[in-house]
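Known limitations

Structure tokens in this collection are predictions and should be treated as such. Users comparing against experimental data should check residue numbering before alignment. To illustrate the layout, the record for Translation initiation factor IF-1 is reproduced below. The input appears on top and the generated tokens appear beneath it.
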Amino acid sequence: MPKEDLIEMEGTVTDVMPDQRFRVELDNGMSVHAYASGKMRRYRIRVVAGDKVKLEMSPYDLTKGRISYRHKH
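Generated tokens:
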């Protein structure tokens, strides 16, 4: 699957789980599980509950996603 086929959505982090995993509520009301991308881990970008984030999701599984960007307040 090429990277161009990813679906980008925005949401709010509602729950922080172990091992850089998060529960994110999307703007359309759905709740998905997400993990921090490799660059976010590399540069130690912290994500806490209440942050607005941008997700990348595969069109094949809309229950999981990767957090690619944390919006600044």
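For this record: Residues 2 and 58 are 10 Å apart (CA to CA). The radius of gyration is 11 Å. Please report discrepancies through the issue tracker.
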